[in-house]
Amino acid sequence: MKPFTVACLLAAGLLLPPALAWSDPATLPATVPLPPPQPPARPEGLLPPELQVTPLPPERPAELATGAGRDAGKEVGRKTDEPQPNTAPNAAKEPPKDGPASLSEAPLPPERPPELSGGAALALKVSAPDDSACLRRLERLGARFEALPSLGNGQCSAPRPLSVTALADGVTLEPAAILTCRAAEALARWTTEVQVAAQKEFGDSLKSLALGGTYVCRGQNHDTDAKLSEHSFANAIDVMGYGFTKRASLKVTAAPEGTPDAAFLASVRTGACGFFRTVLGPGSDAAHGNHLHLDLRERNAGHRLCQ
After folding, report:
1. Which terminus of the chain has a lower count of CB atoms within 10 Å, N or C?
2. What pTM was computed for the model?
3. Looking at residue 80, what is its pLDDT?
4. 189: which residues sit within 8 A by CB, 6+ positions away?
5. Which long-range contacts (CB under 8 A, 24 or more apart) does 93-98 make?
6. In this structure, is residue 225 part of a structural domain?
7. Domain limits at 212?
8. Most confident of 1-15, 64-78, 193-207
9. pLDDT tens, 180-229?
């Protein structure tokens, strides 16, 4: 092969020198890695923003600064080489001139009216409600009653009580009931329902109501430590039994189921819930096993207790 041809083949890499063609591949020179390309320049629009400085709040107006605030503002400009105030123990006892003492500048509340202070406050009395309309309704219901002087015994009171002796259709109360006008009206309206139940169950007319008590100053269920009963305000009635024109009287008790007595007692007890806010009787608790307690106690949201 001519020397010129060999040189051309070597230059093109088609012909290797004999020493390299027959050498071990492990002895071949390693390939030199190329350096990675340089990243492109960062666009000017993506440069980090300049550091933002948070603005300070505006200064407190002078008219809103207290004495302590004004002194605090002066302390900011005080030089460190100024003599500091005396911090001795005796100096600590003296109140600062413009410190907490400045709170006394706030206006004091007005004085309590003399009629609401001391013994005058205890002598205040709440005026009794106007019962004129209630009394007219009670007369139309056929009730017989008379006004009594106001009653009072400590917290127990009845400013305008009535002594009610009879209701519509000549139904007598035994004994007479001492009630407020509202309680007497509720009793008179309920008694008309009792009259209807007597005609339905017995074919007889209601003649009387046997009462156990109306006004009496005591706690609930005769407990001296309990809340005052509505009896303490002439706002409650205890019905012990019913009298009739022909048949024997009927006591308030637990009658055998399926009998006319049980049907009558259940009917009048259920009807009482439409006129009174509290209805308790046999089965409610041991204290009401022999009578029907009816009262007009005010409760939240007009709640009624019928047991």
Report:
1. N
2. 0.59
3. 47
4. 141, 275
5. 96/68, 97/67, 98/66, 98/67, 98/68, 98/70, 98/71
6. yes
7. 134-306
8. 193-207
9. 999 999 999 999 999 999 999 999 999 999 999 889 898 876 676 668 88
Q: Do 249 and 275 touch, CB atoms closer than 8 A? A: no
Question: Rounded to an integer, what distance in angstroms lies between the CA atom of residue 293 and that of residue 281?
Answer: 6
Of the two residues 155 and 266, the one the predictor is more confident about is 266
267 in a structural domain: yes
Helix pair angle (181-202, 132-140), 10° resolution: 20
Cβ(254)–Cβ(284) below 8 Å: no
CB–CB of 214/254 below 8 Å? no
Q: How many beta carbons lie within 10 A of that of residue 187, not counting itself?
A: 27
Inter-residue contact 173 to 191 (CB < 8 Å): no
CA dihedral 211, 213, 219, 220 (to 10 degrees): 10
Contact by Cβ (8 Å): 302, 188:
no
Number of domains making up the chain: 1
Find all residues with CB under 8 Å of 101, minimum gap 6, and list them. 95
Helix 260-272 to helix 181-202 angle (10° resolution) is: 150
Share of the chain above pLDDT 70, in %: 69
Q: Is residue 95 part of a domain?
A: no
Indicate the DSSP class of residue 5: H
Question: Alpha-carbon distance 151 to 214, whole Å?
Answer: 13
Distance CA 214, CA 235 (A): 7
| Number of Cβ within a 10 Å radius of residue 293 | 26
